[in-house]
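Practice problem 4.
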């Protein structure tokens, strides 16, 4: 872990914000992963479940697009979740090649535990911040995300 007082490694000094984002994401994801393990979930599975909590019966392609993960990661996660009894995957009536994903009762039962996990993670994350700092950080994070996505859409292949 990097001590903020010592700063980032010298090679990252011209990318202080990016290095801080990396460190924050790493520690945040690690803590979330530990909380998810307590629910017998792997990181990323909760994102798929949350999409299904909001709209059950999505196609695998819709889920793929909504969570922004690659096809193989989503397929592997859905297969594991199906094996665990959290969801079903069945061919769509309109096109047997399209798989429709639906929650089982066991999957739906994770709605509150996952909501509690995110609430707890939020409380831990912001405990030393004021309401104004939380709002400013959240807004800044979305601006940074949008900036990176815009760059990725505009960048020529190989950049």
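Answer key:
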């Amino acid at each position: 872990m990097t001590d903020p007082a010592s700063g980032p490694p010298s090679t990252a000094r011209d990318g202080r914000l990016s290095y801080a984002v990396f460190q924050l994401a790493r520690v945040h994801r690690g803590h979330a992963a530990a909380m998810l393990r307590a629910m017998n979930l792997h990181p990323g599975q909760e994102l798929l479940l949350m999409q299904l909590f909001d709209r059950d019966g999505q196609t695998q392609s819709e889920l793929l697009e909504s969570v922004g993960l690659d096809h193989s990661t989503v397929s592997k996660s859905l297969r594991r979740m199906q094996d665990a009894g959290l969801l079903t995957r069945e061919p769509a009536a309109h096109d047997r090649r399209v798989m429709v994903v639906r929650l089982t009762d066991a999957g739906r039962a994770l709605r509150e535990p996952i909501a509690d996990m995110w609430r707890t993670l939020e409380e831990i994350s912001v405990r030393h911040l004021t309401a104004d700092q939380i709002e400013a950080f959240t807004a800044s994070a979305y601006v940074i995300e949008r900036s990176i996505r815009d760059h990725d859409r505009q960048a020529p292949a190989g950049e």
